[in-house]
């Protein structure tokens, strides 16, 4: 054996390359990397431990460990699974439990979605730490007896995802003192009504309050006591709330402590009430990203409350990304109101991304306000302002280019443009924006496709054919924007053949 292979760091680096194509989703078929690691483990004593550590680091279900039990091995790895049924199979004996636990100390990441084999573990000693070095657990088992989850809660656990409610949550922070990431009931976009009914709000509050080192929490709406606990955690960086609560968060004269180090806030809710209250009572002086999805619509009055609360949360010098999308119920008529969201967000001087999809009212914006906004957001790179689009665009090309001068790093812009009333002549303009690559124009009309294409080609040279986006429904080829993209393609081709060609000559 080469001497270099006796150096543990060299050996681990080589084995890590062998382990690149690991796929733990299959419990019966070995991948090429698993086969290779198995062969390496059988080569010599020097290779055995590092190869076995990698082989068992991440597993899906407990079947691979049950396969280490001699009596169960033929059942686990039989190609014809119909031959064997685990019903009627006696639980593990004391000796077999040792076989089962033989490699459990090597497991760092585990996903459990079924309890069909749990009864085989009934004879394990009480309070057994089945996975003493476990770092990550995903628990998606429904209707399991309470005691089984305790077997998987290791003191070393750093990240835990639990889909259904479980009584063991009450003391998860006690069992797992090092826990940093906790996700409860958040593996689906929205909790079903029956799942929300099963969530005991006090259980959820006790679970959160038992954790003292959390950096990332994702869960259903919390009661005010749990929200207050989180506000005092100096380690907390990310908060995600999924679903709605029947209990209000606000209490008389309650003001939570500042969430000093929280950088990311995510809300996936049906209505805006909980989020608005949370933001009104909280401060986030380190917040960098705010994302919200509202699936039952956000009425105009609530939207204005939300925007105001966000503007007052002490994040004016830190917030970089705002992403808010409201999806109103079908057949709901637009309110006709004009949102003041742009004005309220002028305070966020570090803003780099602003995504607003508000389908129940329009976002008020004209040339002057756009210029003022871009002057306030010099770092802006991506902006999308999507509303019900039942009003004519009020931003012209001249207003657009005046605003773009303030933001040299812009990459993506989705904004209705008045492409009917052309108010700029590219022949007399020397300005070019060399960062903007994608322009989305929504349902904006076009009066002169060649004039518009000439303006874009001359002043936005990085916006190529196909990167001016518009609705692609039936008959999209008859859209004037289709013609704009066709002309852009032609202009680009001509420019390649004749590098000195100018926008002015293209228009002639």
Question: What features would you highlight for this structure?
Answer:
alpha/beta; 15-stranded parallel beta sheet; disordered C terminus
Note the overall shape: globular
Provide the residue-averaged pLDDT. 84
Strand count, sense and barrel status of the largest sheet are:
15 strands, parallel
How many whole angstroms does the radius of gyration measure?
A: 29 Å
How are the strands of the biggest sheet laid out side by side? 1-2-3-4-5-6-7-8-9-10-12-14-15-16-17
- Which consecutive residue ranges, at least 5 long each, have pLDDT under 50? 187-194, 501-508
Number of helical runs? Answer: 19
Share of β-strand residues: 5-15%
What does this molecule look like?
The protein is an alpha/beta fold and 508 residues long. 31% of the residues lie in helices and 14% in strands. Helix 1 (8-18) crosses helix 3 (45-56) and helix 17 (449-459) crosses helix 18.
